[in-house]
Amino acid sequence: MFENLNYLQLQHYWWIIISLLGGLFAFMMFVQGGQMILGKISKNDEVLKTMLINSLGRKWELGFTTLVLFGGALFAAFPLFYSTSFGGAYWVWMSILFCFIIQAVSYEYRKKPNNFLGQKVYEIFLYINGSLGVFLLGVAIATFFSGSQFYINEHNFTTWENSLRGLESLGDPFNVLLGISLVFLVRILGAMYFINNIDNEIIRQRSISSIKIDMIIFLVFFLNFLYFLFTKSGFSYNENGYVSLEKYKYINNFLQMPVVGIIFLLGIVLVIFSVFNTIERKKTSCIKIAGIGTVLTVMALFINVGFNNTSYYPSLTHLQSSLTIQNSSGSQYTLTVMSYVSLLVPFVLAYITYAWYQMDKVKITEEEITAEDAHNY
């Protein structure tokens, strides 16, 4: 089956898989969003806080599974991106990894008896993971559009031409706009998840109040990000792999790939529609539609930056070092073998869906959390 595909088709296939996994991971970061608003919603009420943390604690491992799938697929299918980004911009990537490591530690040890750091410290770790981790991830993804400072020689050896090793991306307002947009998007998703997963009127009302504010901030930053994205020059390459700047490249990609553009607009509409239903119609299950909208939006953005002869990781200092899905992928044999392995992805997604359903069959209540035999995070 996959051996009948040519090299370019395999490269496109794998970029679609990565785009889908990236969208799924963006949705699963509602856990990080929920961690950011723990104090805002609980207002230091220990029972409410325990309910909120237990709601998230039952899902963070599913998000970690999606992260591993996304990162593993991206680095395996496009190894030159792995060696360039991790080998060059390692300070920003190591910071992101650190933020996710302390999340796992926090859920494991927050309620352990006699933990020497104390419960409050682990809650601070959760906030750092939710805020700084998500922000840095958004900034790193934004460099797919804005570019980085590196040079790749004929032996594929990368020279990073900035001593900040990736942290220099924080100085670009375009990158910061996407980072902040992602932070407030996952805050909205986290609040929606609390409404759907916890049977408590106080939490529901405070979550709705949080969404009202966060949605305004999200739209301000996201619309500004889109304005800069659609008016900036992009990085295009021809049939010979020669990279050059093209005006309005990213809006042109949506226009020249109308299906991708429609998916992008549909995703945004679904998120806005879900927020409206949550606030005005008091719906409690809008996290599902908002999740689909998030997946579609992020997936379309990834396809936009990878397809239509677009460099998905451009070099600002040496244009011809820019990475494309054609010059940075594994061999045809590697991609073919991996494509058969990718057939397992639906089973992983089915496991996530089943586990989600089993954990959410009954909403979390105060009685459950305060029971003597309760297992709390």
TrEMBL record:
Topology term for the membrane: Multi-pass membrane protein
Entry superkingdom: Bacteria
Residue spans crossing the bilayer: 12-39, 60-82, 88-109, 121-145, 174-195, 216-235, 255-277, 289-307, 337-357
Subcellular location: Cell membrane
GO BP annotations listed: aerobic electron transport chain
Any GO CC annotation of this UniProt entry: plasma membrane
Keywords: Cell membrane, Electron transport, Heme, Iron, Membrane, Metal-binding, Transmembrane, Transmembrane helix, Transport
Coiled-coil residue windows: none
GO MF annotation terms: electron transfer activity; metal ion binding; oxidoreductase activity, acting on diphenols and related substances as donors, oxygen as acceptor
Chief place where the protein resides: membrane
Matches recorded under PANTHER family: CYTOCHROME BD-I UBIQUINOL OXIDASE SUBUNIT 2 (PTHR43141:SF5), CYTOCHROME BD2 SUBUNIT II (PTHR43141)
Family membership: Belongs to the cytochrome ubiquinol oxidase subunit 2 family.
Protein name as it appears in the record: Cyanide-insensitive cytochrome oxidase CioAB, subunit II
Organism expressing this protein natively: Malaciobacter molluscorum LMG 25693
